[in-house]
User: Which sequence fits this backbone?
């Protein structure tokens, strides 16, 4: 497909890319609903184009009033006719959409803005393609497109340069490549109801954009070098709004209804960076290095060529970066640990998180969904082959993780592992504590017990057994006897961490009393 020069037509091509991508998926109710989201987006664009056309008409009126002559009156009459021709086509398509809505069961109870049978393909085929011996209304639509285009071209004396910029037309090249019977079959044969609405709205957009092309041409005829626009609108035309990591996001940013001859009076900024402006627009690209929704701010400054007044217009735009395949990311580390909650995130390009089925196998694992793409994995057996399995939307994949015990904790007396300690400080300690250093999870290990040996200066050693981490009984007694020159040994220290079936032996400690 050749890339058109008209910025709005680039936006419509984006719609076709999204529409084609959605149809290629295993279509779910959410995807069907997405078609109506696209339809609403194009309708909003139609409103912007309509506002632009009204602005151009006001400027034509103002110029004809200022330079009232027979020639300019003729241009004004053509401008009004062009707008009316476009509006007549839009009204015709509105009636066609109403009929399709009713034949698809009328408003649904869940969402009155959508018909009941949004997945029905027979409704669109019967209405628009027709039955065996009766042509559908798609052929009348095709004739209306051709006649509306012809009327608009007559108003500009069939100028071929302008004809190339008028988007309302029958795309015979795509039909030929598709090997479909004709244009109607290509667009509507066995097409779900939900997918047809944005297609019809796209034709309305083409009609309005075609009128814009004609009106701009006529405005140039009556305005000469004294063109003055009193309303401006920042517009973005992106190649696509959903890109794969590693690709580039590309978009054209331009000012609607602004003459391309006034390039020197236009400045365009993205996130504060001034972009080169050519023919009234700038191109912006950004590397897609991480997944998620990305936003960027556009600022356009316009200097009025007649008054020198500078006006500024700001808007924020966004796009989404996804992956081509399933992504399962451990939110804290690259392994699962026994005895703690292991958070993970699961996503798949083009598939709603609600349509994904996520399970775990190996490591005695279980998985719990929190919300959206977030899950908690719990495991109880060490292994190198614990799999997170993801299926749904025609996709099936799995990712392998290792399962480990929580690392050995470190036993400390106070904040020390060994060394010298003052007599008073030593007696003030309540016992040993097990510390998990540099461990990112919420987990606490407990001291199960230890063997405490006091070696008084020039006396025989005294040994006691202590249960738990805190001193009790004999351990308290020999700690209270501490004097400078004594040495205390903590042997056979055992600790138990979450997920442990039995205690584990950890580090010993030695303290010299000073």
Assistant:
């Amino acid at each position: 497909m050749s890339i058109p020069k008209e910025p709005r037509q680039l936006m419509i091509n984006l719609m076709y890319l999204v529409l084609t991508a959605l149809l290629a998926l295993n279509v779910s109710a959410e995807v069907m609903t997405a078609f109506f989201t696209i339809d609403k987006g194009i309708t909003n664009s139609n409103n912007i184009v309509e506002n632009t056309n009204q602005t151009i008409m006001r400027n034509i009126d103002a110029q004809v009033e200022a330079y009232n002559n027979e020639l300019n009156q003729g241009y004004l009459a053509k401008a009004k006719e062009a707008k009316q021709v476009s509006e007549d086509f839009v009204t015709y398509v509105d009636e066609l959409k109403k009929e399709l809505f009713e034949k698809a069961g009328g408003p649904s109870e869940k969402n009155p803005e959508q018909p009941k049978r949004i997945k029905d393909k027979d409704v669109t085929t019967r209405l628009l393609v027709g039955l065996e011996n009766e042509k559908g209304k798609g052929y009348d639509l095709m004739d209306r497109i051709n006649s509306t285009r012809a009327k608009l071209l007559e108003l500009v004396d069939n100028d071929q340069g302008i004809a190339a910029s008028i988007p309302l037309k029958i795309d015979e090249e795509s039909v030929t490549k598709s090997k479909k019977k004709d244009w109607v079959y290509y667009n509507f044969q066995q097409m779900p109801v939900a997918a047809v609405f944005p297609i019809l709205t796209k034709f309305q957009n083409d009609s309005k954009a075609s009128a814009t092309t004609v009106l701009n041409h006529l405005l140039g005829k009556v305005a000469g070098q004294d063109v003055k626009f009193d309303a401006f609108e920042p517009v973005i035309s992106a190649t696509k709004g959903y890109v794969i990591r590693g690709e580039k996001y590309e978009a054209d940013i331009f000012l609607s209804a602004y003459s391309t001859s006034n390039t020197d009076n236009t400045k365009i900024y993205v996130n504060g960076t001034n972009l080169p402006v050519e023919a009234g627009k700038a191109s912006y690209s950004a590397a897609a290095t991480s997944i998620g929704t990305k936003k960027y701010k556009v600022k356009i400054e316009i200097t009025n060529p007649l008054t020198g007044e500078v006006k500024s217009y700001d808007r924020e735009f966004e796009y989404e970066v996804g992956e081509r395949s399933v992504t399962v990311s451990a939110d804290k580390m690259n392994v699962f640990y026994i005895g703690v909650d292991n958070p993970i995130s699961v996503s798949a390009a083009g598939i709603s998180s609600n349509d994904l089925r996520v399970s775990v196998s190996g490591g005695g694992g279980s998985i719990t969904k929190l919300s959206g793409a977030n899950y908690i994995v719990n495991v109880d057996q060490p292994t190198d082959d614990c799999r997170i399995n993801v299926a749904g939307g025609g996709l099936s994949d799995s990712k392998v993780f290792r399962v480990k015990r929580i690392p050995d904790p470190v036993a400390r007396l106070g904040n020390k592992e060994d060394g010298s300690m003052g007599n008073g400080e030593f007696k003030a300690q309540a016992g040993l504590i097990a510390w998990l250093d540099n461990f990112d999870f919420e987990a606490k290990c407990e001291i199960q017990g230890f063997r405490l040996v006091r070696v008084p200066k020039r006396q025989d050693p005294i040994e006691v057994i202590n249960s738990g981490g805190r001193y009790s009984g004999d351990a308290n007694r020999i700690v209270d006897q501490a004097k400078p020159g004594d040495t205390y040994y903590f042997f056979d220290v055992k600790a138990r961490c979450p997920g442990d079936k039995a205690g584990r032996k950890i580090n010993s400690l030695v303290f010299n009393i000073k």
About this structure: The radius of gyration is 36 Å.
